[in-house]
Each structure stands twice: as structure tokens, then as C-alpha cells.
## 1
Amino acid sequence: MTSMSTTSSAPRAAGPNARIVVDDVRMQFVLRHNRSLKELAMAMVRGKDLGNTFMALDGVSLQVDSGETVALLGHNGSGKSTLLKLISGVMHPTSGSVRLRGRIAGLIEVGAGFHPDLTGRENVYLNGAILGMDEPSIRARFDEIVAFSEIERFIDTEVKHYSSGMFLRLAFSVAVHTDPEIFLIDEILSVGDEPFQRKCLDRIRELKDEGRTLVVVSHDLNMVSELCSRGIVLQRGNQVFDGTAADAVAHLRSL
Amino acid sequence: MSAPAPLVDQPWTEPGKGAGLLDVVRRRYLLKLLVRKELRVRYRGSVLGLAWSYVKPGVQYVVYFLALGIFLNLRGSIEDYPVYLFSGLVVVNFFTEAFGNATRAVVWNAPLVKKIFLPRELFPVASVWVAGVHFVPQVVVLLIGAVISGWRPQVLPLVGAVLATLIIAALATGLGLLFGSLNVVFRDMENFVDLANMVVVWLSPVLYRWDQVASAVPAWVATVYQLNPITVAVELYHYAFWWPGTVNTPATALPPDLLVNSLVAVVVAAVVLVAGQLVFRRVEGRFAIDL
């Protein structure tokens, strides 16, 4: 497998089993209204400021050990998804640092790498490669991926003709058959019908039993407290609770 | 599925900080799939498909040939004008397509860029590669035309052609990285690049001879004109595919400092590539936010 990033220094105060170390991370968004050069020039001439800022994460530190299953909980706008994006590397923090050990697969959004004009088969290869697999491992796992998605008949049909359920099944199937040590899962367990959802959950439990590290963002609190061992509650960019998943759910409900 | 690798074997990494263009080389399988996807998507539902990459330069060629070759009678003063014109035109077409598409590549792939981390340099590089796929059949047509007008392959000119192709690829990649990353923040860039691409064909001796410029402008302008890497690539293509086939054309039909200019062009293209990569990496942190 190809590595996604270049090696960097070990984070300070990393435990021996740590997989993810988030150290005093702040993420500030600039809410800009000016996009074109003309508007920028006008803003400069008039001395108008270029939009106010918004702190999505305000000094969050946490460590996730190998094999842990952690739920990130919080109401809308609490910074869960931003934190997940920082861990996946899609965004870089304004200050602070994020360090990882091991290969990571971000299921930030299922099917992000799918293209409607390609067939199911082509999309499996493309998405597998996007998620960091090489050609032999995709080929080796191809039948397994298709079998899991249960759409064998349509695998050579263009994805644009798929129903939304079929699309999500295939995308999810590719994602859980990549072979990373760390899984980031954002709201994807609302995939498909109930039998398929159950299948997905079983698959995620399998990944957990294999000792993989899971970070899950979901609003389905019952599912989360059942699936995860640890829960972290965020509120307006701050970490307000860290404990067992059940206690974290209780804490969130009391907010 | 295999069990996860033990922790001790694994180095600490910083997510989202890759090795830039080196990662593109490392993940060439993904690059290959992205190129294939872009070609498939570009010609979806089209009957002619990849043949469009012949039709468009073909029409453009006929227009230039009629207007300049016949109406302005440049074919009277340039021997084998059809080959002269086409050998320059393929170079410029490769550059403008690669540069234009590379500039838009990151924005086009916004859904991916926002959701999954992968070396973002892949997108502009894939665009340049796609332009290369379109470029190859044009070179084949050029070769056929050249052979018909009496051209025979020679080693040194062909080395020059390979060098010219590499110069254009590096230049387009570098500029594509530079303008493609800035285009995420300022969408004006793609319009600016379209404008630049419109002018490119006139800023190099594609339709006319280099000495027609040299005799009309001050010496320093002529020097700058000659140092334009695209001009160098065009002249290298003339040297490779046009000049060997001519009979009555003296060597002065090619600019005198072509060798030196070629070395300068290599340096310029390399500098542009490095600069494009550096700017791309600085701006990259804002991609997921600004898209």
C-alpha cells in the first residue's frame, strides 16, 4: 500500500499505543464575501474588512489509542465534522497539530469519489485507488466488494442508472474493504434499507474486532453507544466531555 | 482481511501533508485511472469520441492555412508551409489544452478535494496527461504530412523534439499548478488563462517566421521573444519535422541560438515547475475551505 503522507516528528506526550494525537487544535474559518479580484480591490480601497471569522474548533486536544472506537458527539455546528476533516487531512488546522500512525480511510462521505458516467466496476477501481489501495489489492478484493454490495447484476452498468440505495451500497462496500488501521466514519450508517444497515454495522463490528481504530460521527445516539467504547462530546468547538460512550450520550442529552 | 500492522512499525505522519509531485509518481495507478476517467467523461455520449481531438485542430489548421498561407501568401515565403504551420500548431495546442485544463482541474474535482485527502497535484497532472493523449495523434498526422513532403528522420532533430515536448509538459504542469491553485481562491484565474492561451499562438513563430519579428522590434524585445520557452519548443519542432524536409531553405530559417535558447528554456520550465509546486502547496491548505 502507498503511504499517504511523509513522515513527521512524533507528537509530544504521545502514549505508547496512540494512533491519533490531536494537540491543542484550533480551526478558524474566514467567512468571506468577496471572491473576485475586483471585489477584493474595492474592499481594499474602501478599507472594508474581508469578512468576519468563526472559530469552529477552539483548542481541542485528544488522543485515540490503537483499537479504540470513539464516538464524536455534539449538536449541529459543534465542530465534529471539522475535527474529522482535520484528522483525515482534508483540512489543516489554523494552529495546533494532528499526528497519526498508520493508514487512514476517511469515509467522510460515501461515494465522494464515484463518477456517474463510469460503470460500477470502473468506480470500484477508481474509488479503491482514491482510498489508497493499489491495483493488485483491488483486484484481489473485487469479488468480495461486489458480493457485499449485492449488486452483481448491475456492476457493468453506469452508476448514474443506479438507485440511490444501490449507489450507497457499492460505495460503502468499497470503503469498508480498503485495509486501513484507522477508519473515520461520518454519518454513513444511514446507508440503504434496514437489512443492509445491519450488514454494515456487522461489518464495522468486524473491523473493530480486528483491532482497527474507529472514529465515528453520528446523530444516531443509540447506535453510537452500542458500537463505541468511548464518547467525546463537543460543544461550540470545545471538548466538554470525554468518557464512556453511554455517559457521553447521557451528557449530550443533558446539554 | 489481514489484521492491522503493529504500531511500532509505523512512523508518525501529519495528515494532509504529502510529498507533492513525488506522491503523484508514487500513486501512478490512481493517476492512470483519473486520466482514463477524464477521457471517458469528456467523450461521454459523443459519436466521434476521441476523433474530436483530430477534428478540432484540423479545422483550426485549415482556417490558418487559408487565411495566412494562401490569402496572405506566407506559403510563398516559407517552403513547405503546411508542415511548418502544423509542426508549430501541435506544440501550441498541447500547451494551451494542458495549461487551460490544469488550471481548472482542482475546481472541477471539488467534491473529491473537499472530502477525501489525496495528493491534489494529481488533478493538474492528470489534465496535462490527457492533453498528451490528444497530442500524440496530432504528432502522428504531422509525421505523415512531413514524410509526404520529403522529410526523413534524423537523430539530433528528434532528440530536439523530445526535449521540446518535455519543456512544454513541464511548463504547462508548473503554470497549471500555479494558476490552478490560485483559481480556487480567485476564479478570475481561469478567464485570465483563457486570454493568455488565445495570445500564445501569436507570441511564437507558428504562423510566421521568427525573423519577421526580429526585423520589426527592438533587439531586446526580439531576445525576450526568443527566450519564451514555447517559442523555443516551436522552433525545435520546426528543426525536427520541417527543416530536414526542405530543399531550398538555408539553416538561417531557424534562429541562430537555438541550442543555447533550448538550455535556457529547460531551466525556465524547471523553475516554473518548482515555483508552481511551491505556490500550490501554500494555497492547498485552503482548498477544502474555499471550494
## 2
Amino acid sequence: MTTLLEIDGLTGGYRDTNVIFDLTTRIAPGKVMGVFGRNGVGKTTLARLVQGSLLPAEGMITLAGAEITFRPAYERRALGIGYMPQTAMVFDDLTVRENLSLGQTGHAPDLYFERFPRLAERLDQLAGTMSGGERKILAFVRAMIEDTQLIVLDEPSEGVQPENIDHMAACITERAASGAGVMLCEQNLSFLTGISDHYLGLDAGSVVLDKARDKATQDEIRAILTL
Amino acid sequence: MSLVLILNLIWQISTLALVALGLAIVFGKLRIMNMAHGEFVMIGAYAPVITASLGLPGWLQLPVCILTVALVAFVLERSVIRHLYGRMFDSLLATWGIAILLREGVELIFGRGYQSVSPPIAGTVTILGADYPAYRIAVIAGIAVGFAVLAWWNRRSKVATRIKAMVGNPELAQAVGINTARLSAGAFVFGCCTAGLAGLVLAPTIRIEPMMGLDYLIRAFFALVVGGLGSLEGLAIGAGIIAGTQSLLGALASQTYGYLAVLTLSILFLWLKPDGIRPSSR
């Protein structure tokens, strides 16, 4: 199997406090990895370690064969890692149009406006004046239109209407079908299990399940969420 | 009110706006409390002296000014400032020390005494029957055009959008591929260069000496306190109120009353409207 993202023995967190411990996993191109677990198990920390806003204490991260372990976030973006953070996910003082125009764009936003027409209606509105769900959608579309080979999404469905969650799922599936790898950190189990090709279950910063979709059972997944 | 008084008012407002512009960028955008801002005005004012002492032609004053100020600002940014972004109090202390070093350095090279330079444009122009120095008219027009271009650039350019993004959300800015360290350094050097440019245009109208920067720093801070941080409109309003009040009272009563009024205004704004008249970052 070709590997897009390779994580080996990753340990890291915030200053002197490690949150992720000795984590090893792989993401293949064109595949969606669903990262799940209870609150505080390290999903966001893992996303930030991969994206580069946190640097690890130990271990190695490789993207398409190139080591990126200690590369800053802006260099990782240039190498092809897109990121949608869980909080502070948009530029509040910029308009929707300006938010979408930042970064190197590879996919026309018009395709996404068909699914999320509210964005098209609010192109000149400041992102900070939008509702929480709308800001999530804006951040999601911004991450989707970037020309990236790996997309890290941290809780994209939080606070978003069910209809729009379905649209998000369709967008992720399409980007994966076009060859991008996706790391989807999610609490919404039905959203996660609906589109993931591979599951990574976390508890207390360690991997407790790392299985392909067809190998993992719903009972195993639910058991991790009640650990 | 005589036309000359009005033109003097416009001169004071436009030059203060230019002095405060760099501080608005460095303090308003980068959150660096740059107490050495006035010293960059001072270094810019010394550019004609440097040019003359090197035996260079007068038309090189502008390149000498920009290169000197940019070099000093770049070295300071790489060595000190880059470690202080987001640490406002630390940056205040550090830049206060830098200001002393810059003053002492200039004093070591040029001495403590006053220097004076001639304006590059001599003579006067007659406007509605009033004679006014052609140099000042040219500077006022240049600053007006410069601010118009900057306002257009601020709305249209991708770099301006990236600076706003970096200021509002530095972590996300990095995530979308913005090299925030390089952008901050560029903004700092640009801010210092505008201060140097202000010093250069003021040079023929003032006495140039190593201690001259403090007065410009204080008035630029007052302009930002009144106008608000982060917008060109606020900067223009703040410069208008501070320079206008000081000039009018200075002309009608005395300079002491002018300073007193400006100080009182600034205290009132800090107390009652601490974000200034235009607090928006857009």
C-alpha cells in the first residue's frame, strides 16, 4: 500500500505536558482516516502535531516520503497539508471572500457554493459576524478548495445542521476520490463511520484501535467511546 | 483665520499622520510597543547630513534614508524584536533600551549639537494671495497621494489581506501557508521606514539633534490613542485632532496651552474611549 502520511512513535503535546504517546499510524492517498475517542484523549493534539502548530517531543512524521517532523506549519502547507482547526477556524476580521482567497487555492469555490449557498450569498460579510455553524462551513470550504494532498479536519461537523453535514461528507468523499488523504477527527460517530476507510481510536493519548473499515466492528468503536 | 494658519495646520496634520503611520503598523498590527519609533524619525532626519558627509549628491537623500533606516530596523528585528511579538510590555522595555542606544550612537557619530539642512525645493508659491513655502506644499501633496495609494493597497492587495489575517489569527495564518515571521519582519521594517521618511521630509523645517525623537513618539502615540488603532481613517482623524488642537492653541495662545490641551485630550480618551474613535481593524 502506498503511504501518504506516516507517523512513527509520535509523542508530543503542550510545552512540558505530553498528550500523545508513542503513536504510530499511516494514511494512504485517497483514503479517509477517522480519528475518534472521548473528549480530551488527544484528537486535536494529534491534528495539530500533524499540521505543525505543535512540534513533537519524540517520533517522526513523513509526508509522501519527505520528513516534516520539525517543519513549521506554513512549510507543511506548502508541502500539501491543509488544516481546519476546531476553534478559531476563520479570520474574523476578513470577509468570506478574503477568507477563501487566502492560501494557494486549487479548486474553484463555486462547486462548493452549490452545496453551501449561504456562503455565496455572504461573500462580502465579515466572517466574525457569521453564526458558529456558518463559520464552520466557511472553514471547511476553505480547507477543501486548497490544493493539498492531505487534509486535516478537526471536528468539522460540530454545530453544523444535519443537511450540511451530509454535504460535508459528500465533499470529503469526492476529495478522497480525487487522491487526497483525509485525517478526520470527529465526535459525531455516524458522520465519521459513514465516510472513513480506516479508524484510529484514541484513549489517553495512545492508540487503542487502528483498523480498516471492514475489519472494525461497531461494538469495538462504541466500546472505545465508553472507556 | 488666515490662509497661512490653515496651511500650517494642514502641514502639521499631514506630517504627524506620516510619523504616526509607522507606529500604527508596528504597534497596531504587530503589537510591538515601539519606544524607539521617534529614533527612526531622528535617523531619517539625519539622512541629508549623512548624504552630505559622504559627498553624495542631494537627490540620493531618499535612498540613503530608506537604506539606513531599513538596515537598522532589519538588524533590530532579527536580533531583538522577533522574539517579542505579542509581548507588549517586554517590547516596551526592550525598545526603550534600543532608543537610548540609537540616540547615543548618533550622538557618538554626529555630536550633540544641532544640525540644519536646506529644503530641496526653494522659494514660495502663492495660493489665494498668500505666500507659502513650495517645499511644504510639495510634501503635503506627496503625503496625501501616499495615503491614498496606501488606502487603495490596504483594500486591494493580497499582502495587506495576509497581514490582517496574521494579526487576527496567527496560527491559522501559518496553516494557510503564510510565513508569519517573514511577514512580521517586513511589516516592522516598512513601519520604521515610514518613520524615517517622516524624519527626512521634516528635516529642512526643524533642528536636527539626537534627542529630537521623543517629541514625535509622544505625539504619534497621542494620535493613535485618539484615532484608534488599526485603520488609516482612525490615524488621519487622530492626527487631525492632535496636530490641529496643538497648532491652533499654539498659534492663538501659546505652545504650552497646545501641549496641555493635547495631553488632556489623550488622558480623556484613554479614560472614556480607550479604543479611540475608529477601533476597527479594517
## 3
Amino acid sequence: MVYVNINGKDFKAAEGSNLLDVCENNGIHIPHLCHKKGLSPVGVCRLCLVKVSGMRGLVPACSTKVTKGMQVITHDEEINALRRVNLEMLLSEHEHNCLTCESNGRCELQNLVYEFGIDAVRFSINKETKPVDNSSEVIVRDPNKCILCGRCVRACREIAGKNILGFTDRGPAVAIGAGFNEPLGFTECASCGACLQACPTGALTEKHARFEGRNWEFNKVRTTCPHCGGGCQMELWTKDKKVVKVYGVEEENTENKGNLCVKGRFGLDFVQSPERLKKPLIKKNGKLEEAEWDEALTLVASKFQEIKNTLGPDALAGIASSKSTNEECYLFQKFIRTCFGTNNIDFCTRLCHTPSAVALTRAFGGGAMTNSMSLVEHADVLLVAGLNLTEMYPVFASAMKQRVLSGNLKLIIIDPRRTETAGYADVWLSPRIGTDIVWINGMLHVILNEGLYDDEFIENRTQGFEDLKEIISKYTPARVEEISGIPEAKIIEAARLYGKARRAAILYGMGITQHIHGTDNVGGLCNLALATGNIGKPGTGLNTIAKQNNGQGAGDMGCLPPIYPGGQPVSNPAVQGKFEKAWGVNLSPKPGITEASMILDKNAIKGLYVMGGNPMRSGPNISRIQNVLENLDFMVVQDMFLTETAKIAHVVLPACSFAEKDGTFTNTARFIQRVRKAFDPIGESKPDWKIICDLSQKMGYTMSYGHPKDIMNEIASLTPPYGGISYRRLGKGGLRWPCPQKGHPGTRYLWAETFTTPSGRGMFSPADYQPPAESPDKEYPFILTTGKDLYHLQTGSYTRNSVALFNLSPEDVLEIHPSDADQVQVKNGEEIHVRSRRGSMKIHTKVTDRVPEGTVFTTLHSDKVAVNALTIDALDPMAKTPELKLCAVKLEKPA
Amino acid sequence: MQQVAAPLEDERAKTLEIIENNNHDPKRLVKILQEIQAELGYVPEIAQRLTAKKTNTPASQIYGILSFYNFFRLFPPGRHSVNVCLGTACYVKGAENILKEISSRYELEPGQTTNDRRFSLDFVRCVGCCAIGPVMTVNGKVYGKMKPEEVKDVLGEYK
């Protein structure tokens, strides 16, 4: 820290920090346009000119570093006159017509002109207009309002890492161009809108916000994004019960630091979709008809009560959702356990990430992402397996790519498809699908053979290393190549990179877990981390990337058959006693059945309560699921939309969106953050927590909460990792659990000192390769694998209802390798029949060498195409997660 | 400059060869683009796209370079390259009128080529013959003390 003298007063500042930031932080306002925090300084707008003693002329504060004893004058007559002239010249560049501008009221140029009191421009105004670029689905580019500050160019490069925008031409002709000076919509723009958030004027604006409201008319609310598990902080600008504009919150203590992806910024209009359910629906004569709340809830309560009375509590079950808030998930499992009297409660993670929970608990003692997003700042090597980061979690992918480009991070990508991140990788491995444990064991083989393991860590903190060595010895790189198809040399290269790193972190996704041996796969990755001591430190660990906004939270809240909130076992009598006392009822000590049983086993249950899930699209082998669900005596679906599952329910209860309620989400990195209400529920829809309370009342058990904050207080009192959480504390930002007491600052990374396994040690759990449930054969020669695209999430019930997202990606397509396309004689864009032993679909092709030969890929977002009609319902024996990532199919040209 | 636009496949092959010779090195971007122009007479769109892809350089950066330097051509050159000097000395002696005359007579703006590929027109900043300004050059040959009414005759020589 040094002292600098600004306008005769001394201020403390870090040496080398940015002079403009130091002034602004100390309340000294310096006009500026081209500078923006988070972007590199360029000093082109010449508005922040200041006088610094000892420096010649005036210097731009934004590109001047603070030095000891520096003397600065920020305002005097000469400086003001210069700033004024510069502003006037900017104004003369174009006719800045604020009357018709979408940025009117939030324009930085307008603010400065007003501040300087410029009521007439002395220079002649250039009235020549250039054409407006409307080609993008989401962004309008109006070069006539551009002041050439270059903030958009830097945002596209330094935040998004896309480099779509750049300066073209020179001298007076300089302009901002996209790609090869094309319309923006023709480029590879990812529509993240970082440029738009950075733009100080109306040159870049939201297309769908045009004439939807002027900037002072909006209600502005800070909340958490409801799409993926990233937990981006955003400000919703709403008007007349519509989300019109969305901006990232530019604060250091957020996960996204102001950045958003296309879904967060332009994909929240599903909230005001005309498809929203506005009244309860009751099935009468085979048709869902609108009804009043009281009638619907009375019917639901009596039907559930009837099943409970005649067949017992275990004939009932509930499926929660990783889209609901923590408070709602907590109440839902409380409702199932108290009113139903069963532990038959599960949620959609069963179909994706439960193998992580099982394997991580076995290895370390708890199932959650061990580190946080800041791991990229500390890791030297990142191993990303079965995870398409760019499309799954774009904001984090951008941060990662920036680290790679700066030379501070090496990247190992394991994905059968050549994903965008593979282009940034030092090593890219493309294994045959379903052979993950083989390359994992192969890497361990090299690490053990070449002495790259951490014997001190193994000795002091782990158990079972000898068993590991025995199994691993069979996985020579040559054998690994034979089974997985990964060349020997590549396995060795990847193993050395990971093994020699000072700090290496593993990130993985559903490519690892959605297999019948998903638990083994995650266990194998745990072995890698334990053997190299890459756990319990910053920049290391096993990092599961949850695909939904509250996938972590719903599990934390005990929406799982064997555990109460905070992972406390239902079979433990002391725990049972604690919850019986708190909830005032007798509880069942018997662990319940999983979602896989609920939706795949006929007669496992008779009554089902689904809050926000859509197993009719997300589950495997849909025709079997339909058969099971239609056989139920009674099914209630509580959702914002009439999903495919809701269509076959007996009663549908209209839930409201995240924008219409208060609560919290816990992101994939254990970060608990507030969700804030922007407006009252649309139609007669209600927040999930209110519906549960009302229904509970009807079933004779009173749950009375005035506000979700009261629910959080109850959660904190019963859930040790959430013990220190309250709305008051969350008001200033998020907290990362474990946060056991009121004063606790939260926990950046897990397992620093000890593990919470029974032995307190990290447990190796070696596993052998087993072939997948179904392999390609003569009749079904292709492998079908599934995933997501950038614009949608899961079954698309949110994203398909966003106008922009739907237009950006209107349908699922089948990616097929050019040589396979030749073989089945199908051209790019043609329709093809895909058949498995369970079902078939018609889908348009996209011929690309992104997929390997013999493998076809598609997404599961569309309501028109149901890829899960084809997938296999074989389950991981421990986690009960289906093998959604792989089944055998044949391809036929339609007659 | 006597080149005419090469067929697409040829442009593609030649571009790839030049990028290959430069080891796909993004640090040699300007050199690569110069060599492409020397070979093909201009930098066609296909060459821009290939250079971006093969050197792993953003499209915006390629276009930024091509549009920054006056030297680069984005359109196929004509059989005859006409340059009018707009350097200070030529300018005060009325070079702008020479340029206007050519523009209106052949309906083309600086940076463009006539539809029949006969002429491409551009302006330069000083060719080092200030004493005989205003100056224009055709295929490198210098014509000094030009008058607008002489344009027709001079260019008429070039078919």
C-alpha cells in the first residue's frame, strides 16, 4: 500500500493499481467511456485525462498505474474544457437521437453530456447513416450510435473468448465489424451478450426488448439464474409481469463476475410464456379441465389419503425437482415424510448424478463438488471428462479458456466428441463410449509405474492403496488402447500431465455418470485424485458439474430416499428422533425407493406426487415409463407448463416461476444464493412452497410459514452444513456450505484436513472394466449417445418456451459422421429413422466429424423428438442411474 | 499486375500451400496474406476463411488486418491497376478532380474494379514525383501533370 495525493488529499492505494479505479473507489468521479472494470484499459476516449506531477501533458487515468507519492489533479478548468471538447466531438460523429433509443436513461454518453451541460454541439453533425444490423436473434447493432470505445471488442475477446467483434478499416472510416465484416447473425457468435452489457451507448441493444419498456420504468431485482448449476447472479429488469432485460451482476464475490450466457441473458422470457398454466387442471372424462384451487387440493388430499389408508404409506411416493428452491425441496420431502409417512422421495438427479453422490461419499465421506469455480485460478492442470463445458456451463468455460490462453492452465479433455473445448486442450482423448474406467485405470497405471503418485499423501490420508495396485496392474497402456481405442502414447501423455502437475483438478459430467457402471467411473476418478494427492487443496479435487440450478440443493435438502436434509440417514434412530421431535410426527426408519423404481417398476407404488419433474422425457425407455405412470391410481404434477408428464396426470397444479417467489438455490459448487421475487405470480399460479403448505393443511398436518425465510430458519436448525445460513447473511451475497454456525464464513474447498468416511481416510475403490448393457451388433450397428446444446436445458420445458432460445435452436438434430452418412446414404439435413430395441424416432441429420465413426449423437430438448424412447433402462446397481449415454441403434432412410 | 481471378479450387489449393509453407503460424499472418495477394492478385473470401481456420485466428482479426492496410485487396483486381496520388502536393494541384473524372467515367469507386475487370482504381499517398503533380500511375507507369480531360486518352490506351 502506498499513499497518493489526489486533488490535495492523501489516499491509500495498492501500488500498481489503476488510477481511475482508485479515484472512483474513493468517491472522486472521473468521466470515462472506454474504460470498464474487468476489461483491459486502452485509453482511447480521452475523457479521463488527468494531470500527474512529473508526467508530460495530460495522461489518461484508466491506463496510468498508481505509484508512491503520486500527485494527481483530476479536475480543473483546463481539464474540464478538454473533456467537454472531446464529448462534443463524439456527439458530432452521428446524430444521437435519444428519443428512439433503447438505451435512453441508461446511456453513459447521455449521462456525461448532461453532466457537462452540453446544450448545443459546436461542430457540424455527421448525418450520414449506416445500416442497422438486425441479423442476430438477440442483439441489434446500430453503428450510428457507436462511439468506437471498443468495449464490446474487448468483452468479446476477454470475457467471452470468442473474438467475433473487431475494428475494421482505419482513420475516419474505422468501425466495429463482426467476423469477416458480416452480419452478426452469420458469425459464430454465441449470443452471450457480453458485448451488449459492456456497451456504454445504444449501439448494442436487446432485440426482444425493443419497445417493451423504457429504462426508468423497470423494476430491478437481483436474483440467481434458474438455468444451469452455475448460480450466476443477475439483475432482472421487469415490467408488467414480464422479464424484459437481464444484466450480470458485476461483483467480485459472485461466481460469474458479471458474465452471463445466452440462456441467462436472453432465455428468461419463458416466465411470461403464453403456455404458462394459470389454473389447476383436473382430469374429467379423460380430459384435463380447469378447476378452482380448493376443488383440486381437496381432491388431491382425499385421493392420497385413500391410497395411504388402504395400501399403506409406502404405496405413495414423491419426485422433487432440482429446479425448485431449497425451501421448497425441504418442504416437499417434509410433506412426503410427514403427510405420506414414507421415505419414497427422490428427485431427477437419480437420472444423472447420483453415481457421484454414491462414489464421492464412499471415497471422501460426502457427495458434493469438492472445490469451487475459483479452482481455475489455482490449478495447473484441469482434466475435464464427459463434460461439454462450453454448452453445459458456458460462463465457467469462458473463464477456463481465458486461463488456458494466458498459458497458466493445461487442459486434458476426455470426450468421444470433438467438443469446442477440445480445441483448447493439450491432450484430447476420445474413448469408445462406455470404456471410461479403462482410460482412468490406464492413467493410474502410468502414474504408479512412473512414480508420479504422492506417497506421503497415500500413507497419511488414504486406505486401500494395495488393492488399487493389484487391479491397476492389469491396465497397461497397450491393453487400454485395445479396449478404449485411445492410442497408448496419448494415455501416457495425459497421465504424465496430470501426475506431474503441482495442482490438478478433475471436472466431470454426465458422460461419466450415466452408465451402468457410473459409480465405478466416479470411483476411478477419486482414485486418481487420491493417488496424486490432488484433493483437499485449492485448485484440485473432484468437481461434479450439476446440470440444474438447484441439483445440489435438492439433495442437500434430503429429497433422497435414505437421508434427511444434510445427509442424515433415516435409519439412524438418533436422527429419526431429532426429526420426529422437530416435525411432531412419527417417521419411518425404512429407506424409500428410488425414482428409477417409481417410474420403471409397475406396481411399486400407486400414488405419485411430481413437483417439477418430467420423467416422460428425461427417463430412459419412455414407453415403459408411460406404461408404469398410466397404471398409477393417482398422479399429481405440479409445474409451470403442461409437460409430457403433466399431460398424463390426474391433477395438474400450476406453479409459478423463480421470478415470482423468494427462496435460495445452491449451485453446483455448494454456493447458497438468494432468489428474489420480481412480481406477483401470473394467473392463479402459486409458489411451490405455498401449494405444499395448502395441501399439507388439507391432509391434516399444519405447515405454517409466513415467508420462505422462516423455512430457511427451520432448515438451518436441522441441517448441520446449513446451520449458519439465514436470509440476513445471504443478503450481501452467497455462502458456501459447510457453514455450520452463524459466524462461519463458509468453506471454499472440502477435505482440507480430514475425510468424513468412517475411518477418516480417503478410500480407494478400484473397479474392473465391464462392458456396457448394450453393444452395437449386426442388427443395431450404431451407438446412440445423448447430451445437450448451448441453448437448451434438459427436456426444454423452460428453454423451449423462450422465444429467442427456441429460434436459435428449434429442434434436436442427429449428428452423424460423414462416412456413416455415406454408408446409410443420408445427406446433411435429411430426415432419418433411428430405431433401437425399445423405440424409434424421426430426426433431421447434421453431418459432422465432431462425432466419431459409428456413433450418432443427439440432444433431448425437443418435444417433437423423444430420444429417450430409444435409450436403455439398464441401471447402475449402486446408484440406480440408467445408462442414458449409450444404446445400440440402426439408421434407416424413410421410404 | 496482370493476374485475373483464379478458379475457386485453384485459389483454395494455393492458399493452403502458402499457409503450409508458413507453418500455420499466426504470427506470420501479414506475411501469409501478402503472399496470398501476390499469388492470387487479391485476398478472396475463401482465402480469408482458410487462413482463419488453419492459423486458428479469429475472423475479425483477419478482416481487421485486411481492411487496415490499404495494400490489401478484397476484390479481384482489374487487368490494369490505376492509382491516383492524393499526397499533399498532388492534392493541392487538383488530384481530386482526376480521381473524380475516372470514377464517373468508369463508374467505380477507389478500391473497386470495373465489371469487365478492365480497371481497378485506388488512390495512394505520394509516389515520390511531387514535382510533376498531379500524378497518376497505370500498371506502375507514371503520368505527370495530369488534367481531367487527359484521363480519357491515357486510359484509352489500356484495353
